[in-house]
Design a protein that fits this description.
Elements: E1 28-33, E2 36-38, E3 41-43, E4 46-51, H1 52-56
């Protein structure tokens, strides 16, 4: 089967950028709380997105 290029098809664009309400920064750190090691692999846990700028200052600001 021969593949062909479809013109006019653009890459997906981000619908929104995350921004910290406190410092207006856009750097994000993903952390996990309550991770269990099962068969040598991390499983479960809760993911939290934190502002990297506020995290450097010792504050915990969850973004989403």
């Amino acid at each position: 089967m021969m593949l062909h290029l479809v013109k006019g098809h653009h890459k997906r664009k981000a619908t929104a950028l995350l921004e910290c309400p406190r410092c207006k920064g856009r750097e994000v750190v993903e952390t996990r709380i309550g991770v269990q090691m099962i068969d040598g692999r991390p499983t479960r846990g809760t993911k939290v997105l934190l502002c990297a700028n506020c995290h450097r200052n010792g504050e915990r600001v969850a973004l989403a």
